[in-house]
Amino acid sequence: MAPPGKHVMSCFTMYTPYELKGSTWDAERENLGDTVQRTLESYFPGFSDLVLHREVVTPLDIERVTGLSEGNIYAGEYLAPQTYFFRPAPGYSDYRTPIEGYYQGGSGTHPGGCVSGAPGRFASQQVLKDIAAKA
After folding, report:
1. Least confident stretch, 12-21, 41-50, 54-63, 74-83
2. Alpha carbons 53 and 116: distance in angstroms, whole number
3. pLDDT for res 17
4. What is the DSSP letter of 89?
5. In 10-135, which ranges are continuous DSSP H helix?
6. Would you call 86 helix, strand, or coil by DSSP?
7. How far apart are CA 133 and CA 95, in angstroms?
8. What is the phi/psi pair of residue 96, to 5°?
9. What is the pLDDT of residues 36-46, one digit of tens each?
10. How much of the chain exceeds pLDDT 90, in percent?
11. φ, ψ for residue 40 (rounded to 5)?
12. Which of 10, 30, 38, 74 is the right S-S partner for 78, CB 3.0 to 4.6 Å?
């Protein structure tokens, strides 16, 4: 993905609003990118000089591409009763569903949308445990 000797960096901002007062994300996209880049520059002087390309993805873009409502990568509200091992809801936190043999894994399950691949891995581990228990 990156040229030899270069790297790819991904930066995620939390609580980025879906709707903007008096503007649109298509109009404000680069302003968001500039704000994030300035913030990183303040912690890592010289950071901006290293950026060869950037792509700013807004909540609207996430919704357009993935279908996640309001661009919410957690696939639902991330409220206290639905955090950690209670995702997506109490009683469904072991990746099983009420339908035997049907499992769920993804950003709506533990540990959530910020940990790429982990929900799927954990769901597959539950499937393997259940298969082993039946053997």
Report:
1. 74-83
2. 22
3. 93
4. S
5. 25-43, 47-50, 59-66, 118-134
6. helix
7. 16
8. -85, 160
9. 999 999 999 99
10. 53
11. -65, -40
12. 74
What pLDDT digit, counting tens, does each position of 26-35 carry?
A: 999 999 999 9
Q: Could you tell me which of 23, 129, 113 has the C-alpha nearest to residue 71?
A: 113
d(CA 118, CA 104): 12
pTM greater than 0.90:
no
Joined tokens for residue 134: 């039946």
Check whether the bond before 4 is cis (ω within 30° of 0): no
Spatial distance between the Cα atoms of 122 and 11, rounded to a whole number of angstroms:
24
Residue ranges of the domains in the chain? 1-73, 80-134
Cβ–Cβ contacts within 10 Å for residue 123, how many? 19
- The pair of structure tokens assigned to 103 is 């499992």
Q: Are 105 and 119 in contact (CB under 8 A)?
A: yes
pLDDT for 43 equals 98
Helix axes 25-43, 59-66, angle to 10 degrees: 120
Read off the amino acid at residue 130.
D
